[in-house]
Structure formats: C-alpha cells, structure tokens
C-alpha cells in the first residue's frame, strides 16, 4: 500500500478513536504502532516504540514538567485561589461587575503559581460561583466569566501547555513563559473592561450589594495585602527567569518548594490527607502528560515514515499565496479541530508538522507558539469539547449544566478574538519580554 495512503488512514483512525473515547496516548500509540508495522514489520515497530519511549523523556530538562505540576498541585490545595479572589473582590467593591472582575484578575494572579487551566476553572467554580449567585448575578454571566478566566493558566507562566509546546517545538521554555505574560495580562484587562461595561449597561447582570457599599478606600488598599504570598512566588519564578538568575527547571524547583512552605505556614498542607492528595494528583498528571508526550512523538515518527509532513511542507512552501493566507488556514484548522477534539491532542498531532513550515515561512517561533496558545484558550471553552466548561460544570454543583456554561462564554470569546487580532497586528506585544530577558 502507498505510504502516504497509510498515513492518511492513520490520521483518520486516530481522530475516530478520539471521538469514541479512547485516551489520547493510547490512540497515538495504537495507531502509530499499527501503521509502522503495516509500513515496515513487527520488529521495526517494536524497536521504534522502545526507542521513542526512552528518548522522549530521557533528557534532564524534562524535570521542568513535574516540578511545575507539583507547584500547581500545592497551590490548588493550599487555598491560594480563595485568597486571590477575596482580596481582589474587596479591592473592586462597588465597581459594576466587581465579583466577575475579581474572578478575572484573581484567576490571572492564581495562574502565576498554577499552570493548569482546568484546575483554575474548577477552583474558582467552587469559590466564585456561589458568591456570584448569592448576590444575584446572572447565571450565564457568572459561569462564562469563570470558565473563560480559567484559561489564563494556559497563557500566564508557569503554563503546563507551554511546557508541552516547548517539547514538541524545541523552543526555549523560558522564552515561551516570558512571551505569555503580556498577552495573559492583556486578556484579563480586556475581560474586566467587558464585564464592567456589560454590568454597567445592564445592572441586573451583576447587582451591587449593600456589603460592597460599606467598603472604605482604606479597606480596598489593605485587601490587596492578601496577595503578598502569590506576589512573592510569582515574582521569584517569573522575575528569576526574566533576570536570568536560574533556568526553567530551577524556577520550577524554587516555585514548588516555596508553594510547599507557604502551604505549610497557612495550614492546609499540614494535614496529611491534603498533602498526600496533592502529591498523588501531581504524580497522576505528570504520568499522564509523559504518556501523551511519548505517544505523540511516536505517532509523529510514524507520520514521518509516510512522508506526509515532507509533502505538506513542500506544498505549502511552494504554494503561490501570501504567508498570511497559510497562517489564517492554520488558525482556522485549529479553531475547527479545537471544537471537536481535546486541545492537547490537536497540538500534539499538528505542531510537529506545522511548526517547521511556519518557521520556514518567516514567522517568529515564539510569537507563533503564543498565537497557538490563544487558539488553545478559545478551544478550551467552545462546544462541544470545551474542557474548561466541563470542569466548571462539575465543580459548581448539580444545578449547573454544561450547556449553560457554553451559553455564557460567547461574549468572552469575542474578547479573545480582539486580543488575537492585536497579537497578530502587533507582534511586539508578545516578543518584548522574551527579547529583553537576560541569561
């Protein structure tokens, strides 16, 4: 059988297995192994799989992933999200949409110590949603603000997804982390402005409570003091990377240790059940991610045998169109696939193929990864496979249905599209920090 035909059948089979619910890593390995055996033989398939399993995670630099996962697990278990939310909520009192605005900036603050968007959406679903409903906030407005704000952890360092991007593209983790800072903060600000304008135009969306009217200016300023621990941890990790004081792996170790110390001082991690639960969660997430990495790299090697990446690259580079047309087609493909397939699978499947093509067309690698991450944020809340929406619906209680979350996200997706346009029109928004970092 023709090699390229086997590759096409493999891609279709992989997507089909995802639709029927097979785990991503198993789908990658099953299709990759079957395809390699069909192209070569059984011994070659076993040899390639074994070699990939070793080389995929043999590098010491891969320790950055479990360290930042551990940092996020300690942060989620230690109540940092609650501290961030309540501090910013107090500071924003009497502003229309204050609870939603507190969710936006609280999620951004929590993202500096937790690299998981699913964890952020889940935690704020338990913390912010009951408060919003208690004060009469519109249900869809509340759910949409929480689900979309949770995606900041994908962009703002230490982002777990950026670590995966670094593995698939070999772009520096530190540069990717720095590149995500300004776009992440910019998105939080645009979200907050949207919340304020919508709440001011329609006060029924976000009523201002009597408790908020009682907050004094002095109390507003004092409330921000509750963010000092997050500021120290985020400053150490992000500032240390920017200043060249330590590598991404060292930053992960410092962040995990600092989060553990504050978690012990604050009390939650003193309880063995919570401490052990954070360790179990960290180990489970790390093992899952490594399994996905191995499967994705093995599948990409299978595709390499079929010559699909080479032929696609050759076609796009010789296609007589402007480079921006190809970029637009890639973004459109990601948007469609992101609504149908889990984001990690989309990027594990496409980045090894598309990234070299985009770089060859002259686009800056770090900038392209941030654009891809913005598409990842949008995919995280769009139906039918928006994982943040499902995570929030599960955390907020039985009264919340996933379709209600999806109904509330569309105004924020418009905000994301505005940010995406700004990042494409002004690449220096992305590149300023990476280009000026030391070390």
Keywords:
single chain; 439 residues; mainly alpha; 23 helices; globular; transmembrane helix
Structural write-up:
This protein is mainly alpha-helical. It has one domain. It contains 23 helices and no strands. The protein has helices at 3-19, 24-39, 42-55, 64-77, 80-91, 98-111, 117-134, 139-149, 152-155, 160-169, 173-201, 210-213, 217-223, 228-242, 248-266, 272-306, 308-318, 323-340, 343-360, 365-379, 387-396, 402-425, 428-436. The chain starts with a helix and ends with a helix. This is TRAP transporter large permease protein. One of its GO terms (cellular component) is plasma membrane. It comes from Acuticoccus sediminis.
Write the layout of secondary structure elements.
Elements: H1 3-19, H2 24-39, H3 42-55, H4 64-77, H5 80-91, H6 98-111, H7 117-134, H8 139-149, H9 152-155, H10 160-169, H11 173-201, H12 210-213, H13 217-223, H14 228-242, H15 248-266, H16 272-306, H17 308-318, H18 323-340, H19 343-360, H20 365-379, H21 387-396, H22 402-425, H23 428-436
Helix pairs in contact: 1-2, 1-16, 2-3, 2-16, 3-16, 4-15, 4-16, 5-6, 5-13, 6-7, 6-8, 6-11, 7-8, 7-21, 8-21, 8-22, 10-19, 11-20, 11-22, 11-23, 14-15, 16-19, 17-19, 18-19, 18-20, 19-20, 20-22
Transmembrane segments: 12-40, 61-81, 141-168, 174-193, 221-245, 251-269, 281-304, 324-357, 378-397, 409-433
Main location: membrane
InterPro entries: DctM (IPR010656), TRAP_DctM (IPR004681)
């Amino acid at each position: 059988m023709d090699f390229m035909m086997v590759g096409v059948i493999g891609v279709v089979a992989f997507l089909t297995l995802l639709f029927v619910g097979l785990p991503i890593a198993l789908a990658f390995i099953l299709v990759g192994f079957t395809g390699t055996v069909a192209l070569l033989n059984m011994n070659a398939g076993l040899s390639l799989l074994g070699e990939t399993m070793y080389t995929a995670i043999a590098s010491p630099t891969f320790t950055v992933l479990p360290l930042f996962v551990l940092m996020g697990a300690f942060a989620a278990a230690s109540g940092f999200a609650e501290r961030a939310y309540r501090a910013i909520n107090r500071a924003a009192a009497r502003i229309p949409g204050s609870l939603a605005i507190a969710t936006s900036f609280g999620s951004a603050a929590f993202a500096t110590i937790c690299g998981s968007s699913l964890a952020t959406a889940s935690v704020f679903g338990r913390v912010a949603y009951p408060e919003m409903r208690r004060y009469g906030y519109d249900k869809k407005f509340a759910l949409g603000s929480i689900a979309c704000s949770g995606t900041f952890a994908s962009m703002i360092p230490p982002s777990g997804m950026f670590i995966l991007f670094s593995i698939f593209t070999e772009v520096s983790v530190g540069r990717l982390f720095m590149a995500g800072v300004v776009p992440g903060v910019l998105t939080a600000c645009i979200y907050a402005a949207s919340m304020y304008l919508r709440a001011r135009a329609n006060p029924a969306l976000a009523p201002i409570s009597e408790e908020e009217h009682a907050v004094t200016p002095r109390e507003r300023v004092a409330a921000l003091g509750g963010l000092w621990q997050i500021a120290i941890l985020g400053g150490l990790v992000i500032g240390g990377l920017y200043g060249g004081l330590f590598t991404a792996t060292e930053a992960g170790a410092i962040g995990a240790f600092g989060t553990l110390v504050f978690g012990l001082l604050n009390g939650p991690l003193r309880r063995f059940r919570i401490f052990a639960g954070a360790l179990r969660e960290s180990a489970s997430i790390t093992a899952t991610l490594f399994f996905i990495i191995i499967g994705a790299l093995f599948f990409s090697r299978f595709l390499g045998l079929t010559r699909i990446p080479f032929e696609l690259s050759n076609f796009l580079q010789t296609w007589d169109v402007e480079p921006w047309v190809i970029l637009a087609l890639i973004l459109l493909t990601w948007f469609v696939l992101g609504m149908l397939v889990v984001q990690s699978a989309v990027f594990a499947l496409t980045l090894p193929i598309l990234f070299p093509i985009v770089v060859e067309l002259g686009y800056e690698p770090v900038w392209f990864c941030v654009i891809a991450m913005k598409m990842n944020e949008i995919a995280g809340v769009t139906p039918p496979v928006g994982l943040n929406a499902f995570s929030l619906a599960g955390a907020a209680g039985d009264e919340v249905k996933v379709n209600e979350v999806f109904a509330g996200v569309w105004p924020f997706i418009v905000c994301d599209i505005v940010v995406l346009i700004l990042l494409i029109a002004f690449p220096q928004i992305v590149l300023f920090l990476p280009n000026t970092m030391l070390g």
